Structure formats: structure tokens, C-alpha cells
Amino acid sequence: MRWPRSSTTTARRHVAPTWLSVLTVLCASCAVLPGESAPATAVDSLADVAAGSLLDTPRDFAGYPALSTLTAVSKTVLYRSTSGIDGAATEVSGLVLVPRGDPPAGGWPVVSIGHATTGTDSRCAPSTHIGLLGAVTTVIPFLANGYVVAMTDYEGLGTPGPHPYLDAATAGNNVIDAVRAAREVEPTTSDSWIGYGVSQGGQAVWAANERAADYGDGLRLVGTISMSPATDLSPLVDAMVAGTLTAEQVSLLPSVLTGLSVAHPDLQVTDYLRGTLYERRDVFAACEGENDGLESAIAQSVTPADYAPVDQAAADRLRARLTEAGVPGTAATAPMFVGYGELDRLALPEWTVAAVQRACALGDTIELREAPGQGHGILNLGSAPAEWLDGRFAGTPAPSTCG
């Protein structure tokens, strides 16, 4: 398949491929679809509904014009998923896009896309924005190459309740159940699927890979591609103690703490944030593109005293919770392709390498690639990701850099 070339960024958001950069410019201020909101659940008890089942009638998605030329079906969906925190049944919104033309023998293959950080406020669901809050340029190449696209908004984005930001288990469940929802929308969809994600989404599809053998029963995962994944963010704590957080990491920190507080309501944000960084943490919850300048200004103005843990016990608690929420956790179900930027100042290269080493020790099959001179986000790794993906569908043995 053709693969999008990309540019990189040092911000917490991802940047669109260069060949579609004009779309990024046009979509920078994409508004919420007029009159659209997440539909109310139409069932009495979510616990009585199978994971991935649709909870309401799918709605037409009148999204970015480029999508309409590639899709035969474009629907926003509300589906049942499962919290990775307490196992509770949840409702999650998302998007299903079906390419034009006739499906191949065996049905359309599916890609479940884990989108990068779009904000932690409920308004920041990509499926409620025309340009998918920057994810439209990730979606287009897959549609053009004959994939049904399933993209979860993640729990708490577009639906009631808080968003458990960077809780890998929850996001992994959401990614898997999006595939099931897509198969309800389009009956000619295959049970074979891949996962593709960037940053937060890179973690989400990695977690989905780990959970696919059990939670993903009934589907056949071919493999996952994680670009600039947020793996295990526990090294942030050492940088907080040492006072060496990068500006990009400072911008991420309020959202990380907000996400952790969903699973751990006793977490005291004041144990870690002070001054403007604490008082204006709402700035960092805003949606993609809304407060980028203000975020950067705040991040550049803080001092190490504004984010230092109050004591060693607080540092140890945060480190343990971040490790628990991240990946790897268990052995993966299918092969993985993992890419990272040499100059990534958000999820540092050594963090990704260490996470892959731990996954290799669990027996995973991983091809790890570095993108020289590139930062955090979608990475330009040439034809390597596409060739790797084609090999998985062709049934050839997956390459591995483990060992």
C-alpha cells in the first residue's frame, strides 16, 4: 500500500503527512459538526450488551470533503466497550468509514486507528469534528488502499464521564471494540484487522495487541503499528525530581495527572503541580489547536519547583501508577512494528527502546525502527511500515529486531 510521508513536531500533538499538509492547514479550525452530539444510549443496561455492539442507530458523518470522495459509507457510532480500570461496561463513540468499490474475497480488511492526543475534555472527540481534530490525514491513506476504517474516540471523549487519558487497558479495549462496531455497520467487513496509532494511539493499539487473544476473541489481529508510542511514562517522575522535564513534557503533565485521577481518585494533583501550571491546568485539557500558543507559553514559564513531587512517597506513588497504566504489560498476540523519532522530546527514544526490550523479553515479535532527525508524531520511515503491513497480510514470517 502507499504510505503517507510525514513531518514531525515537538508539541504534544501529532502533525499530518507532508503530502497532505494543505488539509492540515484547512482543518486547523475545523468546527464541531452542526447539530451533532453523541447519541443517548438506547438500552436499559450496558452490562446486558455484548462488547462492540452498537447502542444506537449510526448517524451520517458529513466530514471533511476529501473523505466523501473515498467513502461509500461514513457513520458516527456509539458502541459498548469495557473499562480497563474496573471492568465496567461503558459506552464509547467513534467513526466507521467504508471505502468505495466492491470488497475483496473474504471481505474488507479493517484498520482500527488509535488517534493521537486531541485533548481530555469531552468535547475533544474526533468524530464530532469535520477534520477529526487532525486525524483525517491518517485515515485517508487507509481508505484509498481499501481498508474499512474504525476509529474510536476513546472512553470519555464524546460520551459522559471522564476520559482515562493514557490508561492503556481501557484504550486497548476501545480499539478492539471499534472493529466489532465496524463489522455491524458494514456486514462485508472481514474479521481480519490491523491496529495503527500515533502517540496516545500508539499506546492504545499496542495495548489492544496485548489484549486481542482474550478480549478480542472472534477477531483475527494481523499486527499493529505504533508510531511514537506513549509506552511506560514512569521515567517522567525521575525528570520531575531532577527538574529536567522538557517543555513538551511539562505540557503533557497536567493531562497525565488528570487521566490517572480517573483510576485513582485519591491522587492529589497538588502533590505534583503548583503555580500557573496548577491554576491553568484547564488550558491543557482543551481540544487540538485551541490553546497551543498558551500551552507553550505556560510550559516555557514554569520552574522545576512547579512540578516537583512534594516528597519521595508521592514520587514513588506516581511512578507505580504510571507503570501500571502503560505498556508493555503482558505478551502481545500478534507482531508489532514500532517507530520512534531520534529527536523525540516528549516520549524520549530511550523510553521506547526500553519498553521494546521488555516486550521482547516477554516473547513478542517486534520490528523497531528509528526515524533519524525526527521528533514526536507521525514518522517518515519510507516504505518500511507499508512493506511490513503487506507482509502480515501475505502471511510471511514477521521480521524481528528482538535479540
Uncertain residue segments: 2-42
Annotated CATH architecture of the largest domain: 3-Layer(aba) Sandwich
CATH class of the largest domain: Alpha Beta
| Strands ordered across the widest β-sheet | 1-2-3-5-4-6-7-8-9
Query: What is the β-strand count?
Result: 9
Structural class: alpha/beta
Rg calc: 20 Å
Q: Provide the helix percentage.
A: 25-40%
Strand content: 15-25%
Tell the overall outline: globular
Count the domains.
Answer: 2
CATH superfamily of the largest domain: Alpha/Beta hydrolase fold, catalytic domain
H/I helix tally: 12
Protein name: Lipase
Organism: Rhodococcoides corynebacterioides
Pfam family, one: LIP
InterPro entries: AB_hydrolase_fold, Lipase_secreted
Please give the structural blueprint.
Elements: H1 21-27, E1 59-60, H2 65-68, E2 71-82, E3 89-99, E4 108-114, H3 136-144, E5 148-152, H4 168-185, E6 189-198, H5 200-211, E7 220-227, H6 235-242, H7 247-263, H8 275-279, H9 292-301, H10 312-325, E8 336-341, H11 349-361, E9 366-371, H12 384-394
Parallel strand pairs: 4-5, 4-6, 6-7, 7-8, 8-9
Antiparallel strand pairs: 1-2, 2-3, 3-5
Helix pairs in contact: 4-5, 6-10, 7-9
